[in-house]
Amino acid sequence: MLNSYAVQKKNYFLFSISFAFRNIAIGIFFLVFNIYMIELEFSSEFLGLFLAAGNISMCVGSIPAGILVDKINKKTLLIVSTITAGFLFLLQSIIVDKQLLILISILYGCSFITLMNITGPYIMEFKEFEKEKNLLISNRAIALISMTVGSLLGGYLSNVKIYFVHQEYRSALIVSAIIYMLAAMPLAFLKDNYKTEDIDYITKKQKSNTTLVKKNLKNIIIFSSVFFSIGFAILLLPFTNLYFKNRFNLSITTLSYLLAVIQVSISLCVYAMSKLIKNISSKKNIICLCLSVIILTIILLLVSNLIIQVILFIFISSLFNVISSAFLNYSLENIDGEIMGTTTGIINTAYNMSESIGIFTASILVGGYHFNFIFILSIVSMIIALFFIFISNNNKISRSNIDDKNELL
């Protein structure tokens, strides 16, 4: 059976601290790294290649990483992946050889996708939180808030000089790597969510991944199709800065303040929704959220006022964050518990592929000022996602072998 409520509460608290530290580090890194690379006189083409290498390794490594999540102790995998990712952050901050940087980007992609794949299945183990139904959405809110803190901290650290660091911006990147590795410390105090005798029972009775994937294949295909559609629907979000700058001819100063307001507002909205909407990952609620995105995007398409567009953009971005987390929760509830990691790996592969296609498409459309076409593509993608959500099975079949054992007792 599951360990006590107190044990699970402590585990979730420790995991959340680690998760927050990790996203603070990522927030610093995202703000500073591109500027740092340009300062080192790397070309924009190499920067694109560097980022693409990491994205490709995430796509290729997602399913193997998911299988690993199902086979290895989650605490061990969390600690090893966090330390590895932090160390690779450090190497990216001090190495300037192009070939080595590409290799580091590939390795980081593998470690990061492992952390992505383990988050959902690990949080799903906290079943004793009967009053807390939206842990995955709360977790997403923590990520957004932490990354915002990281961005603010990165702006400050960029002006701080470390006596043995001579390159501008490098000190901020080194601090981000240290924070990333420190995120492993709370994980060392985690206890197993299941009791020892039940872990032994799972190991003895566990079926092969292949057998369980075949059994759940229809649901996995439907869930992956939803995430593929959602991944493409958010094609404008990575270009928020360029969209508002190009469409409304904003100055850099105004744009920086506007983006800060948008980011903070999105974080607060996601957190508020996780607390205010009960059972947000139910099929009915997810459908309502998707319909809300479609309606708001249609309004965004028709209204060109800056203030209204900013407000709509905040709500749409918040809803996308909630929908992706809520549907992941829904997906993991409707597949066998022993293949949560594998399923998450397949889902993330679909999501990363469509997001990459969406980013490439959006870069062309934003550059050509074809904003309305972006909104139309987003609406069509969400309608497709809605179709797959409608035909998905809501059987709540996700159970561990422990539940089978308890039924026999």
UniProtKB/TrEMBL annotation:
The keyword Transmembrane helix applies. Its main location: membrane. It comes from the Bacteria. The keyword Mitochondrion does not apply. GO terms for molecular function: transmembrane transporter activity. GO terms for cellular component: plasma membrane. Keywords: Membrane, Transmembrane, Transmembrane helix, Transport. The chain crosses the membrane at residues 12-37, 49-69, 76-95, 101-123, 135-157, 169-190, 220-243, 255-274, 286-304, 310-332, 344-365, 371-391. It holds the Pfam family MFS_1. InterPro entries: MFS, MFS_dom, MFS_trans_sf, Sugar_transport-like. It is a multi-pass membrane protein. It is found in: Cell membrane. Residues 11-396 form the Major facilitator superfamily (MFS) profile domain. This is MFS transporter. The lineage of its organism: Bacteria, Bacillati, Bacillota, Tissierellia, Sedimentibacter.
